[in-house]
Amino acid sequence: MTVTVSKSHLVVAQNASGRNMNVPVYQITAHRPGPKVYIQSSIHGAEVQGNVVIYHLINKLKALQVAGEIILVPNCNPVGTNIKAGEYTLGRFDPVNGTNWNRGYFYDEQRVLAFADAVDDGLPISEIKQQFRTFWQQAIAEKLSSPWGLGLAQQLNLKLQTMAADADIVLDLHNGPVSTRHIYIPEYARDAAQHFNIEHCIFIPNVFAGALDEATFCPWWTLQDRLSERFGQPVDLGVEAMTLEMGSQEVVQFAEGEQDADSILAYLGQRGVIEQCPYQPKRMRRVAVHLRDYKTLYTDFGGMVEYCAAPGVPVKQGEPLARVLNIDELDNDTATFTLRAPCDLIPILHFPSASVLSGTQLYKVFTHYQQIS
Amino acid sequence: MTVTVSKSHLVVAQNASGRNMNVPVYQITAHRPGPKVYIQSSIHGAEVQGNVVIYHLINKLKALQVAGEIILVPNCNPVGTNIKAGEYTLGRFDPVNGTNWNRGYFYDEQRVLAFADAVDDGLPISEIKQQFRTFWQQAIAEKLSSPWGLGLAQQLNLKLQTMAADADIVLDLHNGPVSTRHIYIPEYARDAAQHFNIEHCIFIPNVFAGALDEATFCPWWTLQDRLSERFGQPVDLGVEAMTLEMGSQEVVQFAEGEQDADSILAYLGQRGVIEQCPYQPKRMRRVAVHLRDYKTLYTDFGGMVEYCAAPGVPVKQGEPLARVLNIDELDNDTATFTLRAPCDLIPILHFPSASVLSGTQLYKVFTHYQQIS
Amino acid sequence: MTVTVSKSHLVVAQNASGRNMNVPVYQITAHRPGPKVYIQSSIHGAEVQGNVVIYHLINKLKALQVAGEIILVPNCNPVGTNIKAGEYTLGRFDPVNGTNWNRGYFYDEQRVLAFADAVDDGLPISEIKQQFRTFWQQAIAEKLSSPWGLGLAQQLNLKLQTMAADADIVLDLHNGPVSTRHIYIPEYARDAAQHFNIEHCIFIPNVFAGALDEATFCPWWTLQDRLSERFGQPVDLGVEAMTLEMGSQEVVQFAEGEQDADSILAYLGQRGVIEQCPYQPKRMRRVAVHLRDYKTLYTDFGGMVEYCAAPGVPVKQGEPLARVLNIDELDNDTATFTLRAPCDLIPILHFPSASVLSGTQLYKVFTHYQQIS
Amino acid sequence: MTVTVSKSHLVVAQNASGRNMNVPVYQITAHRPGPKVYIQSSIHGAEVQGNVVIYHLINKLKALQVAGEIILVPNCNPVGTNIKAGEYTLGRFDPVNGTNWNRGYFYDEQRVLAFADAVDDGLPISEIKQQFRTFWQQAIAEKLSSPWGLGLAQQLNLKLQTMAADADIVLDLHNGPVSTRHIYIPEYARDAAQHFNIEHCIFIPNVFAGALDEATFCPWWTLQDRLSERFGQPVDLGVEAMTLEMGSQEVVQFAEGEQDADSILAYLGQRGVIEQCPYQPKRMRRVAVHLRDYKTLYTDFGGMVEYCAAPGVPVKQGEPLARVLNIDELDNDTATFTLRAPCDLIPILHFPSASVLSGTQLYKVFTHYQQIS
Known about the structure:
The structure is a homotetramer.
Chain A: E1 3-14, E2 20-30, E3 32-41, H1 49-61, E4 65-73, E5 84-85, E6 88-89, H2 109-118, H3 125-144, H4 152-164, E7 169-176, E8 178-179, E9 182-186, E10 200-204, H5 212-231, E11 240-248, H6 254-270, E12 274-275, E13 287-290, E14 294-298, E15 303-307, E16 320-325, E17 336-340, E18 346-350, E19 355-356, E20 361-366, E21 370-371
Parallel strand pairs in A: 3-4, 3-7, 7-11, 9-10, 10-13
Antiparallel strand pairs in A: 1-2, 2-4, 4-12, 5-6, 8-18, 9-11, 13-21, 14-20, 15-16, 15-19, 16-17, 18-20
InterPro entries (chains A, B, C, D): AstE_AspA_cat, N-alpha-Ac-DABA_deacetylase
Organism (chains A, B, C, D): Salinimonas sediminis
Cofactor (chains A, B, C, D): Zn(2+)
């Protein structure tokens, strides 16, 4: 084995019984230098497939020529994983207050800009990066020690972010409701789309909305832009963060998980984390959209629906997306109606229940997409 | 059209806003006499496919030679349908107190026996049936008017049962979690198994546990047995009640629903509700078990599982049912383990979430099943 | 200190992360022989005040002359305690399937009768008791090891019952929704009502509905009756089990908890568990009802209500219990209506929310009550 | 009667049964001109006391000399009111996705500034106000008709905001968890604090976080500031919006509701909505804080707590706020610990359950408060 695998547990919360709740932290340390990688899964408790991916990653990494260090945190939200509401897992938000478990990471643009303007311009890039990491981890630590305390989701997020903050590569493993695989990639790193075996890619701008990928790339992106401006030449800090959506929530599939692991290893190979990497990106069709063209289709009706369009399969304008049953009109012509695609699109995911209230996110779809491979 | 379709609405509850909640009641009246049929769907709010079946039934019945009368009540639980907990419908039980929506129907064995012993033995069977219906509806009405009131689920159940109580045939349309189609049939009516196009049949004894099918057949079965004993000859009262499980919950599928409707029409044709019925039971494989051989497999572990066995596909003893991931041992040989079939079986349904606590109903399975066609 | 206090932890479940969930078990062992006592609290997760009572009991018992052995299990349901749904604890039932956490204890009347008929009639009562304990614990153990497994609530219940099964005194500490203190006592032990400082007492018959108190006294009561009959003379086996309702759920109050502890100590003193017990039952008003006179008043309306009657304060027939607001009629005379007491009664508890659907348990009340001290 | 009371119903959503959900809208029209007032209650479903306040308001307004028009919308969120999770109402957020029901109102600062810069500076203020109302209602209408639809909470919010948008006074009636009465007032209208009979006042800045009060005052405040700047003299547009917290959620109290109604009438009298108003603001102690001094105290522990400090009663630094029980240490000195006030403060509200996870909002408190009457 060319790597050392060690395991520890990090306390992230305390439950109503007063018991500590912790997450397992697997650390793979290589004998040669290289990038730092941070991978977590299941911040949304029902999105469990990433745990299987991490299982395969650990197994496979043991036999590979790793350079650097990889931190893997499966099941990183022990609260969300364990809230059942009926047979399903109520994993997307804190059941006490509705807070999305993936919106409490730290970012503060002004502090990045202040750092960028103050840092010694004679320093080598590697040193600037190191100083920024220290600066940023300090900022997270300050936030964590707020004198009046913090909410549960934010405490959890910041403890995880502390581990992620000095990584060069951050991968956050999620699932959609009923979903085909897709990936969020910051626009500046769009070449990464070619390195994963994921057909559907979303390029996102430098805007922070609370998630881990944004909390990772926004500061580096902002720093990079400001330093480029200040130094009068392009600065590339080389930090990437992506959210990978590995199919549908509430599902564990070991075979698919192995393919997902291979896809991640192919990307890590391209980024120098694995030397002589036996996993290569597949030659395959890939399509991409800008985030603004990744649309959410909300219903303006409530009712019972059949999903006529399968995630991942293109739909032409006017073709059916859903067929809706009207239980009060079963004896006449208005018993059903069909919701049709407002434009050409690719459905990426749909709501997981046949029963919807008005204002439900029925589908999320690619529009104005382009083929990139 | 040989039938008249009429529609009304029955108030079954009042919500916290003080508003009435009602169910649609479709009544199909034929121009010639025949059996009375009562069909309802979605007493469990997430089990919505039966609504589609009723949609197809109404459509098709308009063109058929119906004898008698058919009451159809889709979406018969407006409370359960509308309780969301996360993206799914919390439809199996009252969220206030956990009461299963399908356990509050009325039955009282002693009252049946008292009726059986008191009824004039010179009456024709049809007259005895009619007297018993009146007697039984009176008993339900008394229960409904309990001086201290009744719980929500029981109020709902009894209002529905009032409509079902004078039917000759009662069909309650349900779904399993992730499930293949199956049907519960009282042992005395086991020939009905040959008339539905449903591969998996469960024969249930004369035991009341609160559900509508039992609440219908238990009194008639008990009455039938007592009268047979008293009169010294077999008495057949000809009332049947079945629970049909039309696949998986949280799913609406129009095409499958049409097949389910055809299957019900084939049965109704056999029972004289449809004359010259163009729908015939299929020649197909059918397997059956006694209720005691329909086993629930509970986990003694908590964790994340892949369901390796598909509902409806036989599994041999020792073959895998589930593969379980242990997130704290991903770095060693105990990272996963496999749960195996304790005997030959057919999985009929499994839990719909990959995340389970100990004591979860992982699978329900046929054991000691026999082929009946 | 005349007693030894030891502490251990019993695993009762495993969560979806695959982690063990355990309960603390405090064992107080006296240096002199005496009865065995088992006390648990919070089987319903939101009913937490009993934990404070156990805290005070442990503290006080250290300084008392205890005879025998006392097992105390606070927070005995680590699953129920930790299910939040909004800001409150969803502690009464398993969120997966609605199973009440206090209905899965073991009882089998036929097995008791078989034992009673088979036991050697020459044995001393103490020996019969010992044999029955062994017999009964064996029956529980068999149930627990059911080959197809058991549901979560039942597994939890049976593991707790295993500890309770050889006790002479079993106290199950609960809370009502918004409630005054009250206690359930088996009819054969009605003198115990005089030994607790609890104003409202309910005498319950030998009927099993799944709760721990019933699961404890039903077998002993049945055995006692059968042996009395068989031996032709009264047999008193001296085992008692009670459910104590220590005020309202969702509340922790240390001062009240100390009074509750004193009340329990007074009872234990009367039963010989504490010698020279400094705590004596208070001279106070006590009223009692038979279980059949402890009525639940359900609403037949939905709406928003003010609770006009305070738990514990007698209400005359016709006096107001609740005032209901009709939001659709605020501009006219039907804006409100008043629900009145159908007879003289003492409200013991009421629903904890102002918003009710039809079929809500609005009040539970004593009717036909009698003063017993 | 000097006023006309009319009633209509506005459809705000459709449920999973496909049924419309509506809110009652009461419109009080005076015979003489005056300000327009909009009052709603229960946007958070468990906060029901405001409905009683509106009941009293309607009753009393019938007998008063009203000028202008008053719209009252009780129970304005029929979805949130009817989601039960256990015995309580899960009313703060959409159970499907966690969205707070009070965060989806419309505001767009850039559009306000564009209007302010474009409006004809020769117009009288009243005409500018009228033009802005039209402009703003158009903006809300555009948002409501988004081509891909909107989420349920936002649809609801915007339909309500459409009614509120042309009011001069907007009052949003809420409740805290366990809470004393308090009120949020925009800084520019701080004199309003003297006109309500509410002891605790919070002055909030011109920052939009999604709530109805902000969505009302932010555009007018911003417009006012920009016009003042542009015209070189103070412009007062005279529009006020406040959130009133009428005590604790899950509670209906008719008598307190009448006092709350009198308090609102006193304010409306001061603002010219009621002529010769018999209700006058009380001479009473009032204290106020800036929003930045209204602190949320989060726990860093999980456990069971007694709330030692009552809402509304000042606490000195170091005095106890909560006492926490540690169920695993009941046999030793660490069985309990006390959480103390970090500074002088007034607790305004506390969490309504004794069971808390780490990161729970235990108290919200006034710090650095000042007496203002």
